[in-house]
Design goal:
Layout lengths: L3 E8 L6 H13 L5 E7 L11 H4 L3 E2 L5 E2 L2 H9 L8 E3 H13 L10 H20 L3 E6 L9 H14 L4 E8 L12 H12 L6 E5 L6 H11 L6 E4 L8 H7 L2 H8 L10 H11 L3 E9 L9 H14 L1 E9 L1 H5 L12 E4 L8 H13 L4 E4 L1 H13 L7 E2 L9 E5 L14 E9 L4 H6 L3 E8 L1 E3 L4 H6 L3 E6 L5 E5 L6 E4 L14 H10 L8
Parallel strand pairs: 1-6, 1-7, 2-5, 2-6, 7-8, 8-9, 10-11, 10-12, 12-13, 13-21, 14-15
Antiparallel strand pairs: 3-4, 15-18, 16-17, 16-19, 19-20, 20-21
The protein binds glutamine (GLN).
The site of glutamine (GLN) has 10 residues, from strand 17.
C-alpha cells in the first residue's frame, strides 16, 4: 500500500497544540490498526533545534539517531510509542543547505534556481523520503508556525502541490485554530478562525477538517459558522477543548467522530478501534493519587516547555504507581545569593538537578545537591545534574577544594568533569556533541542495575563533558559508586551513593525514552523513593 499523507496546519496563534493534535490523530489511526509516523516542519532558518535557546524555543528533543530536534517529535514518540529518525524534522535551513549544495555542484544544469520549483521540490522529496523510510500507511506532516507567516510559505506551497500529485484520496488537510472566549460576554468568537482559513485558501489550500482549539466544547451555532465559512461539512468540524491530561485528547476527538471521518475521507477501511490499552494508560493518570513535592533545580525554569520530556517522564512514573508529582521550579541562582535559602529544600520529597549548559547557576545547583546528599532526600541528577553531583562529591567528601567542571571553571585545580577528548578540537556548536543512543553497561548489585533489571541498556545522550578518568579511582575510594559505563568502559554513565535512600545521577537523558504506561526506570525509582515506596526489581 502507498503511504497517505495528513497535513496539519495552524492558525491565529502558535502554541495552540498542533503537536498534541498531530499525535492524537496518529493515535486514532493506530488504534484502528494502521501504521503511522510523523514529520515536523519547522520553517525557521536554523538547520536544527540544537543551537536554539530552550528558554525561547522549548526543549531540544534528542532522537535515537542523535538528532537535536523540535520538542513535537517527543510528543509523537510518546503518544505513538515509535522511534522517529532525525530526518523527520525538516527545517528551512536544511532545505536551503541542500538546494545550495546542488546548485554549487552544477546539478541544476544552468537553470535559474527558484523557490518554485526547486525549493518546493526539495521539500516534497524530503516528505516522500520520510514516508518511504517509515514504510507506514499514513504519514502525518505538521507544519510549524501559523498560516500567513512569510517563512512557511514554501512549505504550504509544497504540500498544496502534493494534493495534486498524490491525489484527493491520499491527502488530507487538517487545520487547527484558536476560538477565543471573551471574558465579558463569555461568547466564543469564530472570526479569527475564519480569517485563518481564508489565509489558507488564498495560498490554494482548502482544508478538509477544521479543529477549533477552545477551552470548552463549541456552541452549535459557532460550529455551524465555522463549517459554513470554512467550507467544510458540519461533521468535519471538531473541538480540541481543555482536557485534564493531554493523553485524553485522542479519545475525546474520536468520540466526536474524528477517527471515523478521517478513515472515510482517506478511503481506508474503518476498522473497529481498539482503545483498551490506551484507555487503561489514560485511566492511570486519573486515579486519586498521593502527592509528592519535587524541587526542580535548574536554569530555564520560567518556561515549562524547556523541560517537557522530563516533566512527562515524571508524570509517567507517577501514574504507574499512583503518585502525582507536584513540581516546583527553582532558579538555583537564588541559593547563590542567599545560601540560607537552601534550607527550604527540606520541604521537598525529592530533588532533581536538571540538564544545562554554562556557568550561571552551577554553584547553586551544587548547593542543592549537597543538601540532598546530606539530608538524605531522594535525588536525581540528569546530565549536568549528574556532572555537578560528581563535583559536589569531590569537593565535600574528597576535600578537593575548588573541584569543578571545566565548563564552569576552565582553570580549576581539580577538573573532575572535563571535555570529552573528541570535543577538544571541535569549534562549531551545531550537532557537535555526543548525541543520541549509546549502549550502557550496568554493574551488577547497584541501584542502577536494580532499576533497569538488565546488564545492558541503551539511553540517549547530549553532552560535551564527562567524568575525568583520572579521578575515577579517587571517587570510588571516597565511596561514590560508579554504576554504569559506556560500552567501551571509557566513560562513566551512572553514579550513585549507597548510604542514601536514593541518590542517582546519569550522564544520559532517560526522559527521552519514557512513554505513558512505560516509565523510564530512573524516573520511576526516583518517584517511588520520593513517595517513600520500596524500590523493587523490575
Ligand atoms: N553542559 C554539560 C555538557 O555539555 C551537560 C549537558 C546537558 O545537561 N545536556 O556535557
Amino acid at each position: 500500500m502507498m503511504t497517505k499523507f495528513i497535513f496539519v496546519t495552524g492558525g491565529v496563534l502558535s502554541s495552540v497544540g498542533k503537536g498534541i493534535l498531530t499525535s492524537s490523530i496518529g493515535k486514532m489511526l493506530q488504534v484502528r490498526g494502521y501504521s503511522v509516523s510523523a514529520v515536523k516542519i519547522d520553517p525557521y532558518v536554523n538547520v536544527d533545534a540544537g543551537t536554539m535557546n530552550p528558554y525561547m524555543h522549548g526543549e531540544v528533543y534528542v532522537t535515537d539517531d542523535g538528532g537535536e530536534t523540535d520538542l513535537d517529535l517527543g510528543h509523537y514518540e510518546r503518544f505513538l510509542d515509535i522511534n522517529i529518525p532525525k530526518f523527520n524534522n525538516i527545517t528551512t535551513g536544511q532545505v536551503y543547505a541542500s538546494v545550495i549544495e546542488k546548485e554549487r555542484k552544477g546539478e541544476y544544469l544552468g537553470r535559474c534556481v527558484q523557490i518554485i520549483p526547486h525549493v518546493t521540490d526539495e521539500i516534497k522529496s524530503r516528505i516522500r523520503t520520510a514516508a518511504k523510510m517509515a514504510k507506514c500507511d499514513i504519514l502525518l506532516v505538521e507544519i510549524g508556525g501559523t498560516v500567513g507567516d512569510i517563512e512557511s510559505l514554501p512549505f504550504f506551497e509544497a504540500v498544496r502541490q502534493m494534493r495534486l500529485e498524490e491525489g484527493y484520496d491520499d491527502t488530507l488537510f487538517i487545520h487547527l485554530a484558536l476560538v477565543p472566549i471573551l471574558d465579558v460576554t463569555k461568547e466564543q468568537k469564530s472570526k479569527p478562525f475564519q480569517h485563518s482559513v481564508q489565509e489558507l485558501r488564498r495560498i490554494g489550500i482548502q482544508p478538509d477538517i477544521l479543529v477549533a482549539r477552545c477551552r470548552i466544547s463549541l456552541d452549535e451555532s459557532v460550529k455551524k459558522k465555522i463549517s459554513l465559512f470554512g467550507s467544510v461539512p458540519y461533521e468535519a468540524v471538531f473541538t480540541s477543548y481543555d482536557v485534564d491530561n493531554i493523553y485524553m485528547l485522542p479519545m475525546e476527538l474520536d468520540r466526536q467522530g474524528m477517527g471515523e471521518y478521517i478513515v472515510k475521507r482517506l478511503s481506508l477501511n474503518n476498522k473497529v478501534p481498539d482503545w483498551n490499552n490506551w484507555n487503561s494508560i489514560v485511566a492511570s493518570f486519573k486515579e486519586p493519587q498521593k502527592i509528592v513535592k519535587i524541587a526542580m533545580c535548574g536554569k530555564y525554569t520560567k518556561l515549562a516547555d524547556s523541560y517537557v520530556s522530563i516533566i512527562e517522564a515524571l508524570k509517567h512514573a507517577g501514574a504507574k504507581v499512583g503518585v502525582t508529582p507536584h513540581l516546583e521550579w527553582i532558579e538555583t541562582t537564588v541559593f547563590e545569593k542567599d545560601p540560607s535559602a537552601t534550607s527550604t529544600l527540606e520541604n521537598y520529597d525529592g530533588i532533581m538537578v536538571l540538564p544545562g549548559f554554562g556557568a550561571r547557576g552551577t554553584e547553586g545547583k551544587i548547593m542543592a545537591i549537597k543538601f540532598a546528599r546530606e539530608h538524605k532526600i531522594p535525588f536525581l541528577g540528569i546530565c549536568f545534574g549528574f556532572q555537578l553531583a560528581v563535583v559536589e562529591f569531590a569537593r565535600s567528601v574528597l576535600g578537593y577544594k575548588n573541584a569543578d567542571t571545566t565548563e564552569a571553571n576552565p582553570s580549576t585545580p581539580h577538573p573532575v568533569i572535563d571535555l570529552l577528548p573528541e570535543q577538544k578540537s571541535v569549534g562549531a556548536l551545531g550537532g557537535t556533541m555526543r548525541l543520541g543512543a549509546y549502549k550502557i553497561f550496568l554493574e551488577e548489585g547497584t541501584l542502577a542495575h536494580q532499576l533497569y533489571g538488565a546488564n545492558e541498556i541503551s539511553e540517549r545522550h547530549r553532552h560535551r563533558y564527562e567524568v575525568n578518568p583520572n579521578y575515577w579511582e579517587a571517587l570510588k575510594e571516597g565511596g561514590l559508586v560508579l554504576s554504569g559505563f559506556s560500552y567501551d568502559k571509557r566513560r562513566v554513565e551512572f553514579i550513585e551513593l549507597p548510604d542514601h535512600p536514593f541518590f542517582l545521577g546519569t550522564q544520559a537523558h532517560p526522559e527521552f525514552k519514557s512513554r505513558p504506561g512505560k516509565p523510564s526506570p530512573p524516573y520511576l525509582g526516583f518517584i517511588k523513593a520520593s513517595a517513600g515506596m520500596k524500590i523493587k526489581v523490575n
